[in-house]
Design brief:
55% of the residues lie in helices and 10% in strands. By secondary structure, it is mainly alpha-helical. The protein is elongated, with a radius of gyration of 18 Å.
């Protein structure tokens, strides 16, 4: 195994077996939620195409009354899925870049490295304002608004 290879890119026998187990479990889920063989085939195709993030979306859908047989399921997934990573630190880095927070700090004149980001506080904030699904050591982040969900504090 290449130590420089990202953990998500590593494929071991265990990971392949776990992937088969996911698909096996999904077969049962498809049988329960799919109104037709066509729905089940579409769901299976989407999971194979999008992998673990879509599996997490399926879990979110089940737990939050989102229809898995909707013709717009893939669009809902694309709009709602924001990031997937094995660590909150990586998601924080993405947020800092996409929200322009680093640029704002640079413009403010605060010297680089003077402030430290509190990853634990960031994770707590994410769990309130976003839907975070933990699946096999990976965090999958979804936009609650795109899923029609309110914050759990509301």
């Amino acid at each position: 195994m290449n130590p420089e290879q990202h953990p998500a890119e590593r494929t071991s026998k265990h990971a392949r077996r776990r992937e088969r187990d996911h698909y096996s479990a999904l077969d049962h889920l498809f049988e329960r939620v799919a109104a037709s063989d066509e729905d089940a085939a579409r769901l299976e195709h989407l999971v194979r195409e999008h992998g673990s993030p879509l599996l997490a979306f399926v879990i979110a859908a089940r737990d939050h009354d989102i229809s898995l047989t909707s013709a717009t399921l893939e669009d809902q997934f694309a709009q709602a899925h924001l990031a997937s990573s094995d660590r909150y630190e990586h998601i924080l880095e993405d947020f800092r870049r996409f929200q322009g927070w680093d640029d704002d700090l640079e413009r403010s004149g605060i010297p680089e490295g003077l402030l430290r980001w509190d990853v634990e506080a960031f994770a707590d904030w994410l769990d309130i304002d976003y839907l975070v699904i933990h699946l096999d050591g990976t965090l999958h982040l979804f936009d609650r608004g795109a899923l029609g969900l309110s914050s759990p504090q509301q």
